[in-house]
């Protein structure tokens, strides 16, 4: 057993039972070890959850970084879509990620920010757009992963539209991008 095995098994447990049911007791049983042996790798459950969140983000964290010739608008859209896809890969992926700090991803974040600024996006606007897009994505995925339809047996009103989560996400993402594009227009002033 090693740290990577513990994290992989914890993520498997997450996918099976959901975030609320993940416990060090259940994880130890799954690994066939005594619960205190997990403390060799993680001092607290919070440390374990943070490691799980980082590992769950690996598909997005290893996506190609933008190159100087890339169109920043296309890159911004694809980067945000990649984040959404990654969150959706895991049961309760958005809840697992919410509140985590991207400590292992700081160089990638700097590269992304530098790319936006070099593409003509004002630095403060680039920061706020990345933050807004990230929080919008987490919130969208939280709602999507919590959507059980009418699983409680209640009938939805006939005039209530069915939510297409992907279309709603794309519409919100377009609004964020369009606002950012306006900030880059010549003569535009960003409200502070």
Description:
The chain has 192 residues and is mostly helical. It is built from nine helices and no strands. Helix 7 (106-118) crosses helix 8 (123-146) and helix 8 runs antiparallel to helix 9 (165-184). It comes from Streptomyces luomodiensis. This is TetR/AcrR family transcriptional regulator C-terminal domain-containing protein. Residues 23-42 bind DNA. Residues 1-60 form the HTH tetR-type domain.
Largest sheet: none
Distance between the termini: 51 Å
Average pLDDT works out at 90
Low-confidence stretches: none
Annotation field: number of helices: 9
Helix content: 55-70%
| Order of helix and strand elements from N to C terminus | HHHHHHHHH
- Structural class given helices, strands, pairing? mainly alpha
β-strand percent reads under 5%
The rough form would be described as flat
Number of strand segments: 0
CA radius of gyration is 20 Å
Pfam families: TetR_C_1, TetR_N
Keywords: DNA-binding, Repressor, Transcription, Transcription regulation
Domain HTH tetR-type: 1-60
Protein name: TetR/AcrR family transcriptional regulator C-terminal domain-containing protein
In terms of topology, how is this protein built?
Layout: H1 3-17, H2 24-31, H3 45-56, H4 58-61, H5 72-88, H6 93-97, H7 106-118, H8 123-146, H9 165-184
Helix pairs in contact: 1-2, 1-3, 5-8, 5-9, 7-8, 8-9
List keywords for this structure.
single chain, mainly alpha, flat, 192 residues
């Amino acid at each position: 057993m090693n740290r990577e095995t513990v994290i992989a098994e914890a993520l498997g447990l997450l996918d099976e039972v959901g975030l609320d049911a993940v416990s060090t007791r259940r994880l130890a049983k799954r690994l066939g070890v005594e619960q205190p042996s997990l403390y060799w790798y993680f001092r607290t459950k919070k440390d374990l959850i943070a490691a799980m969140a980082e590992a769950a983000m690996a598909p997005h964290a290893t996506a190609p970084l933008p190159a100087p010739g890339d169109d920043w608008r296309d890159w911004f859209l694809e980067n945000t879509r990649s984040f959404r896809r990654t969150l959706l890969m895991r049961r309760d992926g958005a809840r697992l990620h919410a509140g985590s700090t991207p400590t292992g991803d700081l160089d990638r974040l700097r590269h992304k920010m530098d790319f936006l600024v070099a593409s003509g996006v004002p630095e403060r606007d680039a920061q706020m757009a990345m933050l807004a897009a990230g929080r919008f994505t987490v919130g969208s995925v939280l709602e999507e992963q919590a959507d059980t339809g009418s699983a409680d047996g209640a009938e939805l009103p006939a005039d209530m539209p069915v939510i297409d989560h992907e279309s709603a996400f794309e519409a919100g993402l377009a609004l964020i991008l369009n606002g950012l594009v306006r900030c880059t227009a010549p003569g535009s002033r960003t409200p502070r």
